[in-house]
Design brief:
Strand order of the largest sheet: 10-15-16-17-18-19-20-23-21-22
Number of helices: 13
Radius of gyration: 34 Å
Shape: extended
Structural class: alpha+beta
Number of domains: 4
Oligomer: single chain
Length: 557
């Protein structure tokens, strides 16, 4: 039996997609037998486009059946770290069957197989793509093209848009620590926008560095003693080897002995203070991180990063920091660190750097690492909406970390549109307890408000859904769910929910399609983007409220 060929099979109702060939009792090799019913398998196209995606693509919202032979010793199966249980309807005498499906999940996925000791026997990686995504290789919606353009757009926005990281008011914010490293997306923004602040702070510190008086015991010549105390007297008795004969003095013995050296306390100015050790530690951390960026992330046009790295390296090697030791205790409660010019500014920057782990950057970084296309698309829509609404296409992205609530409404885009100032808030929760929603708590992806107004004008939801052709059928009261109108109408239903519960003027979907509509209460339909935005942001133009959808599609630039 040990040499008998075994198979783990993934299939649809009609076709086998792949089979993993294994040798009992341990899985030693795998071979995929690929019989995709679609053309969603082309690793060559992916590599040509510079996108590292897995060879096998499975469809979202589609059921697959996974069959695992009993005698392989596989006791647990996980789909993306979540245990899946055998399906009773698929159980056979010699193998277990599992139902595998993907709902609202596009990007990287994996199946892992474990034995009774939870030892990983096999991991199989694949891509989940939308059933509506194009299989035409020269279109924007072909998966490798779409993903690459989405990723490039996010990096361009992070590199080019102005960011404002709001400072924390709590002076002891720096006591917060964590083991998770700062992510690269935040580092890019931090070094780009904080370079001048770092250099200015270092200049101020070099001009007036912190120092303290250090008292040390030291043997000095008898004629150099400035301070004579009980320590000095004891040293004469305890160190008789320092006594020398003399004809002039009789301090110790009638035969004439005096100490050649006496132990005394001597004061020194030293720069080796906890505050300076912190400065050295922070600079070393920044240098290490900026070296990583130069090597792995910003491989071109990195002169600003290199010059900042050189400045920090010079400060450590050529100033008073040369005599400063390594930090062992963080001086979080040092009043000097929180008040002295230069030190205070670097302390604030350190606080800011700690909170690079706050969700806006951390979640985006995780989405990119895990190829979570729907979450990446949500961030893309936030940047693109803010740029489209801003007169100069350059909104200021403001991030306000909060030690108690790091997740909701702490990131917004400050927008200038003609005579008005707007704020587009990321993931703001409307609470029923605060009378912001008259029913349940609601959390649209983006909320648009005038700066001086508490009531929002509009909300937007990013939906990675690719067919909206059935909306017209919905307006004609057609209810044919066999052509998948239900899920698409559900998006419009949700916009009506937002508009009603939050008592706002407009609720709009952002999706990666080609058509744009704003349905007004007078049954008029706007289908021009400029007109739609003007209707939303210009109070004088508002006659009717409504719901609709906008096309936001990443393009190669």
């Amino acid at each position: 039996m040990d040499g008998e060929l075994r198979q783990i099979e993934l299939r649809t109702e009609s076709d086998s997609i792949w089979k993993i060939q294994t040798v009992s009792p341990h899985i030693k090799e795998r071979k995929s037998i690929l019989k995709l019913e679609t053309s969603f398998l082309n690793s060559e196209i992916c590599s040509v486009n510079g996108v590292d995606v897995f060879d096998l693509w499975l469809l979202e919202w589609k059921e697959y059946f996974l069959f695992v032979p009993n005698h392989l010793g596989i006791q647990k199966v996980k789909l993306n770290d979540k245990v899946i249980e055998p399906a009773e309807r698929l159980k056979e005498d010699n193998r277990n069957g599992y139902v595998v499906s993907f709902e609202n999940q596009i990007g990287k996925s994996n199946l892992c197989f474990y034995d009774s000791n939870l030892k990983l026997l096999l991991r199989f990686d694949f891509e989940v793509v939308s059933e509506k995504i194009s299989d035409e290789k020269n279109t924007q919606l072909f998966y490798p093209n779409f993903y690459q353009n989405l990723l490039l757009s996010l990096h361009n926005n992070l590199a080019l848009l102005p960011f404002s990281i709001e400072s924390q008011t709590d002076t002891h914010w720096g006591t917060v620590t964590g083991t998770k490293p700062t992510n690269d997306l935040f580092k890019l923004i931090f070094f780009r926008f904080r370079k001048s602040d770092i250099i200015a702070s270092l200049s101020a510190i070099e001009y007036n560095p912190h120092k303290k008086i250090s008292e040390e015991l030291e043997f000095v010549r008898f004629d150099e003693v400035c301070s004579f105390n009980e320590t000095s007297i004891l040293s004469i008795v305890q160190y008789p080897e320092n006594l020398v004969r003399t004809n002039n003095y009789h301090l110790i013995h009638e035969d004439g002995y005096v100490p050649s050296k006496i132990l005394t306390e001597k004061n020194y100015d030293t720069f080796d203070t906890p505050e300076n050790r912190f400065i050295k530690y922070f600079l070393q951390t920044l240098i290490q991180d900026i070296e990583h960026l130069i090597k792995e992330v910003v491989k071109t046009n990195n002169s600003d990063f290199i010059s900042l790295k050189n400045e920090m390296e010079y400060f450590i090697s050529s100033t008073f920091l040369r005599e400063v030791g390594e930090m062992t205790i963080f001086p979080s409660y040092s009043t000097f660190l929180q008040r002295r010019y230069g030190y205070k500014e670097l302390f604030v920057l350190y606080n800011e750097y700690l909170f690079s782990k706050q969700p806006f950057f951390e979640n985006l970084n995780d989405a990119i690492d895990n190829r979570d296309v729907a979450k990446m698309y949500e961030y893309f829509c936030f940047f693109e909406l803010a740029k489209l609404l801003d007169d100069n296409h350059s909104p200021v992205i403001s991030i306000q970390p909060d030690s108690e609530d790091l997740e909701e409404g702490k990131t917004n885009a400050r927008i200038k549109n003609k005579e008005h100032n707007f704020i587009l808030t990321f993931n703001k929760t409307f609470s029923s307890e605060r009378n912001e929603s008259y029913s349940v708590n609601l959390r649209p992806d983006f909320t648009l408000s005038e700066t001086r107004q508490t009531k929002p004008l509009a909300v937007f939801d990013a939906k990675f859904r690719l067919e909206f052709s059935t909306i017209e059928d919905a307006r004609k009261n057609k209810d044919d769910n066999t052509i998948e109108t239900t899920s698409k109408k559900a998006d419009i239903y949700k916009m009506h929910t937002y508009k009603d519960a939050l008592q706002i003027d407009y609720a709009v979907i952002c999706y990666p399609g080609s058509r744009e509509h704003l349905y007004l209460e007078n049954h008029e339909c706007l289908d021009d983007r400029d007109t739609i935005f003007q209707y939303i942001v210009e109070p004088a133009e508002k006659k009717f409220m409504g719901v609709g959808f906008l096309s936001l599609l990443p393009e190669r630039k």
